[in-house]
Amino acid sequence: MPVINTNIKALMANASLQANERPLSVAMEQLSTGKRINSSRDDAAGMAIASWMNAEIRSLNQAVRNAGDAVSLLQTADGATGEISNMLQRMREISVLSVNDTYNGVQRGFMDMEFQQLKKQIVQIANNTEWNGFPILNGTTGVPIGHQSKATGIGTFATSAAGLTAISATDMSINGVPIGIPSASDDALSYWVAGSDNRAFSAIARAAAINAKNPMTGVRAIAQPTLLTGTAMSAGTAVYSGTLTLNGKSTTITTVVNDASSTRDQIVRAINAMTPDTGVIAKDTGQDVNGILLTAMDGRNIEVTLASTDVSFAAHTGLKAGIQTGGIALTTQRDEPLKITSPSGYISRWGLSTGDFSAPTTRAMVLQRSLSSPNSTYTPLNAGDLMINGFAIRATTDSDDTASVAKSGLGSIDSSDKRSSAIALAIAINESQTQTHVTALAQGPLLQGVAMSMTNGTTTLMINNSTVSVTLSASQTAAQRLSAVLSAVNAGVDTHGVKASLNDLGGIDLTTVDGRNLSIQIGLGTGMTNADLGLNADIPSSSVAPPGYKTYYGSVTLQSREPFTMAPGANGYSSSSNFKALGFLEGHYGYESTGQLSFQVGARRYQTINIDMPDFGSQGGLTGLITADAQLGNPIVGIATPEAATKTIELLDRVMQKVNESRATMGAVTNRLNHAMDNITNVSMNTSNSRSKIEDTDYSLASSELARAQIIQQAATAVLAQANASQQIVLKLLQQ
Question: What's the half-sphere exposure (Cβ side, CA atoms, 13 Å) at 735?
Fold first, then answer.
């Protein structure tokens, strides 16, 4: 039917022409830009993939540049430390020269003059060697991972919050200033929820409480990394599955049948995947007896729970369930005092000890220990229990302690064990002092008394198998009663080795003068209690069956002029090890001014290579043994006499060993960075190739598509012209 208002043929030709315009435009755009995908409409999925690859490639290329800069930094540091090494070698050379008796005092003075100048130059190089405007050899660069400390305390582990003891206002004073009670609000990092807030126990909160009093004490506290050690594990004969909750973040973990190593690997990966949320890093110790070590570098608490329907689950994880708080390091200026006292006697709640730590080279770590031992339960140091600075400490023996009362001297129920005493422990550790450079000091146990009540009568104390009698009467005042007890106990101090002293609670403290065990029982008069003598309530009564002594054991303080490490030995955390029972805590203690540099060598977060850049300066952990007195008018370390030179040679050997280790680390990390650059370049190149296949124009295909679209366009145009002309037939109809 001929019509003129609606030219269907022309409309069809026009629609085809418009439809062909889109592929023609796309083909021309692809050929002109070289990109197959120029907008999301070209290939939505391909665009998303190519965009991600493009970000990856640019990040990888930047990582290559990062690694190159890191290599340059380390080469700068290595060149400077090479000069330090050369100077140390020269210092050792003239030290050996000075020992020889072919020279007199004046000539040795000339040698010492050169020695002291070289010492100053080492310090100058450490302070002046810079990269990009900041020093790299004086321990100040990067993230601090250790600090100069005069006293380093430990944290506390408890299987539940109920095992954490709150700090009271009188538990610690520093330089005569009461520190008070830590506040949970000072810790913005540790996990907490309403009804379960343990932040006040954290190293962060404890350090904040001390630092609040810094204007009055001159003492600064630094929260140390929190270490939650693992536990001995076994390879199960079945698959065990359960839920691990770490600092409020939960994940499901599953063990591997008959493969403890693979189980640890899986758990470590699961924990480290949560690190951004928990702040905790897991490390596989590589040993079944040690399990998995958890670390929070910022000092926050670590809270772990394990839940499973299988009671055997926890035993195969290598993890300890409970709450671990971190330790704190107390620092001062070199000559400033640091005296810690505890009016309440409960300094252990802070993880510290009382004493005078003013000496600039004191590095002290107090090992907290269970105060009392149940009858016939002993905790000696076994072979394989303890390593200090990588050196195994031998087991304690009865012969180490000649002061404590032997078990056979305490009646039918044995209580005192010489091998478990603080004296025996200190002697065993000090026997390896040449290798470890760590000294152990025995500290006696403390039995804190309570405020005195006023019942009268005669009491007999048996202290370390020695009889002490006290008679109290109604005519005595409280002060006179306290004086009577003090006099009775202290009169026999040469025999039983126990000293009595007044405390701030109005009671009497008992402690041994040399670290020996304190074995004690009390025979009370009618109607009397321990409080009537101002004594600790835990002293057992001889009238209670079975009669016997309770023995209280002391602890040791470890101190060194250098940083030191403690770790479990071959026994690890197994049931045969007393490492934990003796109060030892794995970790690094003491002076270390070190910054950790982190080089980003990947496109993802945490794809880094780290290196610790120690302090080579005057108080540095590497060279401080030699350079600590570089600025003094009368240096301590020198070679002016044969005796001094002999000692200096030994110090130089230790310093050179540390410097060589540090240089070796720099070289190893440099090589690692070079390999990383090669690998990243390869990954970037292949990712670029993959992106090209998705994003770039295939010119043969695009040109063919362009030719096809152009032909169709020409044909459609011709057809449209004919369709428009086809309507002329209507005129012929009208002419008739």
Answer: 5
